[in-house]
Amino acid sequence: MPKKILLGIDCGTTVLKVCALDKRKGALLAHAIRRLPVASLPHGGREQKSVDIDRAFKSAMTELKNKISSDWQHIEGIGLAAQGGSTIIADRISGKALTPMILWDDGRTHDFQAKLLQNYPPAFWRKHILCDSPPAGLGRLLWLKEIKPGLFHDGNIHIGAGEYLFYKLTGLWRQDAGNAIQIGSYNPKKKSLFSTLLQIADIPLSFVAPLRQGHETASLSQKGAKRFDLQKDIIIAGPYIDQETGYLSAGGMSTHPLQCSLGTAWVGNFVLPQGNNGKSPTQIALPSPLDEGCLVIQPLLTGNRTWEWGLQQLVDEDYSQALEKVSQIFRSSLLPRDDLFFLPWLDQSNPVHPQSIGAGVYHGLNTQTNRTDMLCALVAGMCCEMARVFDEVKQNKVIDSIVLGGGASNGHVFRTMIAALFSPLPVYQQKDIDLSTARGSVYAFAPAIAQTKTKRITPPAHNKLNEIQAYYKKYMQIFDAYYKSIQMGKAFHFGRGR
């Protein structure tokens, strides 16, 4: 009997991943991974060329085809997920990208966002998008209108990475709610597109793609079939924001998991029950892909860019060499000395100098402090920050497990620290973490196949666990001393809370 094959696609910020799955058994048959070049430009600019995305996608699909050979003709469905919040202006008819893809973490539009917040207070944004600040994509559109006004007409359309690849496959424009809310075109209360915020930039709602409804699918186009040598009757699901399919990949682990992606940016995803009034200033609120609740995408104000900075500045400028030395550094202790702390807000506005980026703080430095102490404090700070943001979520029993994915979950020190900080809740690590988001994208075809296997992380021994939790309490005292009054740093909360 020939296999039935599903393909999962995850177009991340720096890596494109494609995998082939056995629809009946869920086995991973083959996968292909391609790096996506990112151009770092002055003033914090971060861009990708559409030709690089095209080349990587075609190359990965060709490799996958060669690996599964004749089974390529038995593909029944393709799921597509991608990083959200980035910007391409494309020709509406041909799909040709007319701009590079300006990434979600591009820093050149900081002044435009600051001006939006100056003109419209946090209550305005909270009313419309359940978040206390203007979406970065809206500031980006204002910036683009200023430098390239000729792009904004009916013949063009605003899209992101998922919409771009979805059009390559289907010839249809469609966007997910996660991409839409990050440019201000999605109303999470009404679960529909709306024009209120786009009117600030004098942009009509027709300039963005229609919204994907639930687990909506479409058919592969003739061009798409020819481009990738696929059968014409294949069904395409998506596009999803990668946080949706990351959550779907962990959805069967427990009844209410907190799925955490420890990647370029650390993000936690969980479902808030219908009618619950929890919130945070930085959340992204989307319809739950599993039930009637709300999927909260909660970014942490830290991530692997902080970790990479620490490795290169405190261990070795050669990143690969630094990684090899890490296990030796943490062999003796997971924690720094108990009076040294690090607040890992390296990419946030400085509260003392708001026009400057960089709110990271070392507290407790003295003449005896060495680089090893500082690295241990950095790791502890990143993990304590994760515990701080989700403390009330844990205490209110909204979650019943933590499922870790993303690059940092491969690190023993991160896994152990998180297991201790969230104890007694069970903490799991996803297997095949590089492909969990791609696997989750096939949920529309086979929910059970979309779920990744996991292994439970053993928390440290009782004495060490108590030591880590005591350190966290001190971290909270230090955090409050510096940042308690900073609204954007307020954790997810249900009442007065932190």
Description:
There is one protein chain. With 498 residues, this protein is of the alpha+beta class. It contains 16 helices and 22 strands. Strands 16-17-15-14-20-21-22 form a seven-stranded mixed beta sheet, sandwiched between helices. 47% of the residues are buried. The mean pLDDT is 93.
Gist of the model:
This protein is α+β, with helices and mostly antiparallel strands and 498 residues long.
Essential attributes:
seven-stranded mixed beta sheet; 21% strand; 498 residues; six-stranded mixed beta sheet; alpha+beta
Write the layout of secondary structure elements.
Blueprint: E1 5-11, E2 15-22, E3 28-35, E4 39-41, E5 45-48, H1 50-68, E6 75-82, E7 88-91, E8 101-102, H2 110-119, H3 122-129, H4 136-147, E9 156-159, H5 161-170, H6 177-181, E10 186-187, E11 192-193, E12 217-219, H7 222-228, E13 235-241, H8 242-250, E14 257-262, E15 266-272, E16 284-287, E17 294-299, H9 304-314, H10 319-329, E18 341-343, E19 361-363, H11 371-389, H12 391-395, E20 401-405, H13 412-422, E21 427-430, H14 436-440, H15 447-450, E22 454-456, H16 462-483
Parallel strand pairs: 1-6, 6-13, 14-20, 20-21
Antiparallel strand pairs: 1-2, 2-3, 4-5, 5-8, 7-9, 10-11, 12-13, 14-15, 15-17, 16-17, 18-19, 21-22
Helix pairs in contact: 2-4, 9-11, 11-13
